[in-house]
Every structure is written in structure tokens, then in C-alpha cells.
Amino acid sequence: YVGRQALYACLTCVPEARGVESKRSGICLACSLQCHDNHELLELYTKRNFRCDCGGKRMSDVKCKLEPRKEEENSRNRYNQNFSGLYCVCHRPYPDPDDDVDDEMIQCVVCEDWYHMRHLDVDEPKSAKDYAEMVCAGCMETNPFLKNYVGKIEDTNKTTLDDTVQVDVTGLDESNVAATEADPDTAGPSEPKQRRLDDSKVPVEEPPKDKATVSLDICTMPPLVEGGEKSYKKGASFWIEGWRKFLCQCKTCGELYKKHGVEFLLNEKDTVKHYEEVGKQKHGTAGSSYERGMQMLGQLDQVTQVDMLTEYNRMTSRLREFLDQFVTNQQVVTRDDINEFFAKLNKERRESTA
């Protein structure tokens, strides 16, 4: 099981996944390239603690080229509606052919489903920089202890006492924790204003200096106060970057996280931002996309290079012809137009190699 990785659902191998929940399955990036090339794939972005299903119990008719023997069932995998190509509380595909509203989608940090901003039942943050993560309304109800923190992370005065992190809740009237999560995918991520440990001493971006000395006997979860201006009302919650380190880590709260299956909230390596930063460090950021692409192309054998350049030239030629129509007719090119173009191109490619 990989802490966080990019996943795909193959509808060519498991077409029943669109309508049968028990048929949902996911494959890793490597298998999407090696075992499912030219197949109809759903890009699921990233999921946590998942093990590839290619050639496993849920895809028994598929033989994995990378690991032929996969007899053990992936019982720890979790499959939400995304694996069937559906998203949000509206249970619609993305992009939705019947929805002409241009609306950003954002991923919930807990259930990892994707939601339209307009379906979150809350006011949208002014900008993506105002938050880093989001918890959907459903997950706020199934994990009610998060409501205690709404507003408090932004407003509570935090101090360090004998190197033990404490949350001073005295003198607080009506405030609670505001949380925000960004999407990765992009649907990825930013940060709102949140309560800090002592802005003059401990930067928000950094955890407490001596995290090992955090007391496990003192509960620092703020009391739930209802009705205040910044208390939790309903719907989704948006959280600033670094909000997780303000969650109480006492033994009682630790059992609470375990009971609800959200221990990952205390793991700084679980965030999409950490995943993306590791990816940048691993692949490097030097040079333009073109330069990096040419460098990778140079590592392939000559036959593959010729095939790729031929396909690239064919694609650019077709795309130029496609866009010329819009210039001639003085029309605006939309996202749906581009998606339709590449869907048609992929279909032709699959048919030509069948």
C-alpha cells in the first residue's frame, strides 16, 4: 500500500465499474502505461494508502505485466464513487456534458471525493491562497470533533509552555476552527488564516521545535462553542496550510482519530502538497518542459523515438486544423471543445491499433 500515488480506473477492462460498486478498481501509473495502454482510463488524481488492483482479485481477467501473481485481496483499499467516474454530491461525471457552468472542483482531504464549489453549502474563499485543504460537509458530520477546531485555529492564542504545546482556550467566547483544503489536483491547494502557536516565535510553516515533548496526557482540543460568529455552522470547512499540527495529540484524541479512521490527519506526509513537492524534487525543476521532454525522448530507443515524433506531429497537425475552424468562424474555444478533440483523437488511435 502506497502512502499516496496517482491512480486510474480502467473502464476497458472493467466496464461494469460504471454501475456496480463491487466492480470498482484502481491501477497505478506504471500499470496504466504498461498493462492498459490505449484503454479507456479514468484519471483519479491521487489517493492514499492504496495498492494497485491490476491482475488482482478485482481484475482477475487481467494479467499484470509488472507483477503477474497478485493473489492477496487488497482489503485496505477504499473505493468511492470516483472509481465509477462520478463526483460530488450531484453524482455527475467530470467534465459533465450536461453542465455548462464553469465551476472549480476541489478534493476533500478526508474522503478524497471531488466537489463542485457551488455544492459545498458554504461561501467560497476569496482566493485559493486563503486555504490549503477542505473537509466536505459529510466528513464534518462523520468526524464531529473537527467542529471544535473551526475558528479556533484562526483566533486562539497559542503559547509554548515548557516546550509542551498548549492551546489557551480561556477568554474565548464564540469561536471554532475554520479549515480549508486545497486540491491538488490542482484541485489542489492553498491556505487561509488560522490560529498559530506564537507568530513571533514559531512560523506557521514549521512544526513545534520539539514535537517529541508534546504531552500525551493533556487534551488541547478546544471546547465546542455554538452560535458564535466564527463557530462551525454547517457544510464544508476550509483549512489553512499547517492546520493539522494544531490537532490535539493526547491519548484520548489519538483513540478518537483511530476510531474514525483519520489517523492520517496527523501525518504531514499525507498531504497532496507534500506529494507534489517530493515529485518536484525527484524529477527536478530545471529547464523548460520542452527541454525535459527532449531529454526524456533521448533516453528511448530509435524506433520508439520515431513513433513518438510521428504521433506528436500528427497530433499537432490535427490540432492546428481543429483550431483554425474557430479562427475562421470567430468562435471561442472552450474546455469542452478541447476535451472533445482529444477524446476523438484517442478513439481513432485505439481503432487504428485494434
Automatic annotation (TrEMBL):
Taxonomic superkingdom: Eukaryota
Entry annotated with the keyword Metal-binding: yes
GO molecular function terms noted in the UniProt entry: ubiquitin protein ligase activity; zinc ion binding
Keywords from the UniProt entry: Isopeptide bond, Metal-binding, Phosphoprotein, Transferase, Ubl conjugation, Ubl conjugation pathway, Zinc, Zinc-finger
Domain spans labelled UBR-type: 1-69
Compositionally biased residues, Basic and acidic residues: 192-211
ZnF UBR-type: positions: 1-69
The keyword Ubl conjugation appears for this protein: yes
SMART domains: ZnF_UBR1
GO-annotated cellular components: cytoplasm
EC number: 2.3.2.27
Reaction catalysis annotation: S-ubiquitinyl-[E2 ubiquitin-conjugating enzyme]-L-cysteine + [acceptor protein]-L-lysine = [E2 ubiquitin-conjugating enzyme]-L-cysteine + N(6)-ubiquitinyl-[acceptor protein]-L-lysine
Pathway(s) the chain acts in: Protein modification; protein ubiquitination
Known role: E3 ubiquitin-protein ligase which is a component of the N-end rule pathway. Recognizes and binds to proteins bearing specific N-terminal residues that are destabilizing according to the N-end rule, leading to their ubiquitination and subsequent degradation.
PANTHER family tied to this protein: E3 UBIQUITIN-PROTEIN LIGASE UBR7, E3 UBIQUITIN-PROTEIN LIGASE UBR7-RELATED
Protein name: Putative E3 ubiquitin-protein ligase UBR7
Originating organism: Anopheles maculatus
